[in-house]
Amino acid sequence: MSDSTTAPASPVVLEAWFDLQCPDCFRALDDVRALREEYGDRLDVQLRHFPLAKHKHAYAAAQAAEEAFAQGKGWPYTEALLARTAELGERGEPVLLEVAAGLGLDAEEIDTALIDGRHLLTVDADEAEGRAIKVTGTPTYVIGGERLDGGQSQEGLRERIGTIADRLLGA
Asked: Which uninterrupted H or E stretch holds 49?
């Protein structure tokens, strides 16, 4: 008997290409939450950064989110920040630090990360990979090698992702 038969199946990866100043990405969180609830640890939802040029503070927000992930609260930070997209657009980087402090993160460390650029390479790599796979707007999802553009319409997107996940999981 091979060891692989007793090993747990690898989770299906869902890459969520988000701009953290994008109102459509905030609306997409309901789908992401529902998919996480339905699939649990069988679906690994990974945040990928695709800051759009039209959103002045999205690049800094992506860096701040990476620092929040380093501090162990990446998704709570992402969700809280997306809930304040309009405020981020109006007030800029102070919102990034307020969200961090509100979640009990080290806001000073997030500020330092924005200054020293420790997460620039991660954000730049995500953006470059997004361009390579023809991400043009957010949210965009990649699952099982299929790209689904939620920036055009989120109608039926959760169901399409679920159908692909079921197929990949052999359900």
From this structure: strand 43-49
Instruction: Give the pLDDT band (50/70/90) at residue 4.
Output: very low
Residue type, 2: S
How would you class 160 by CB atoms within 10 Å of its CB: exposed for 0-12, middle for 13-18, buried for 19 or more?
A: middle
| Phi, psi angles (nearest 5°) of residue 54 | -70, -15
3-class SS of residue 52: coil
Identify which of 56, 48, 125, 44 has the alpha carbon closest to the alpha carbon of residue 85. Answer: 56
Distance CA 134, CA 168 (A): 23
Tell me the pTM.
0.89
40-56 tens-digit pLDDT: 999 999 999 999 999 99
Angle at 82 between CA 81 and CA 87, to 5 degrees: 70
